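Hallway conversation turned thread

IA: we were arguing at lunch whether anyone had actually written out Threonylcarbamoyl-AMP synthase end to end. Turns out nobody had. So, for the record, here is the sequence (188 residues) and right after it the structure tokens. Reply here if something looks off.
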Amino acid sequence: MTVADLSVPAAADALRRGGVVIYPTEAVWGIGCDPHDEAAVRRLLAIKQRSADKGVILIAADLAQLAGWVDWDALPATRREAVLASWPGPNTWAVPATAAVPAWIRGAHASVAVRVTAHAQARALCEACAQPLVSTSANLSGRPPAFRRGELDPAVIALSDGVCAGETGGLAAPTPIRVALTGEVLRA
């Protein structure tokens, strides 16, 4: 199936209207939505056939966009410095969540997975929306992620509101996920 490319402004407009959009990230094609919109998040999870208990990653254009989502005070200074030193960049951290983070974002966890992205297009999309975005791989749960646009599952594309034009950052594997409190690697 061929879907017309969306520009960053058009993709941001779709996201603001409650849409679910596919876009390139550092390594793989991601699928995302407005993290404040429960219906959009639940739709995204249904598209992926992913359990809500797993939680989702939020990407941000800058640290300020994560205000209200992460509880930086729950981290010792050395751990907070380690997290901040890795951004912007392809490093996702499970950081203690604030009480305001809904279960549809954190899943069954007390933390929220976050990344300040260095990918120019993903960052521009967050900037255009003026907030972080849900970012999970644009594939059915349990299937391999798409590193190139041609690897995107036509069924996932058909259920989305469009594909933001661009290219991934070329990393050979999805971004690592680590626990901010300990540095433990959850996904290498």
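OS: looked through it. Strands lie at 5-6, 21-24, 29-32, 57-60, 92-96, 111-116, 133-137, 163-164, 177-179, 185-187.
IA: good, adding that to the notes. The first strand starts at residue 5 and ends at 6.
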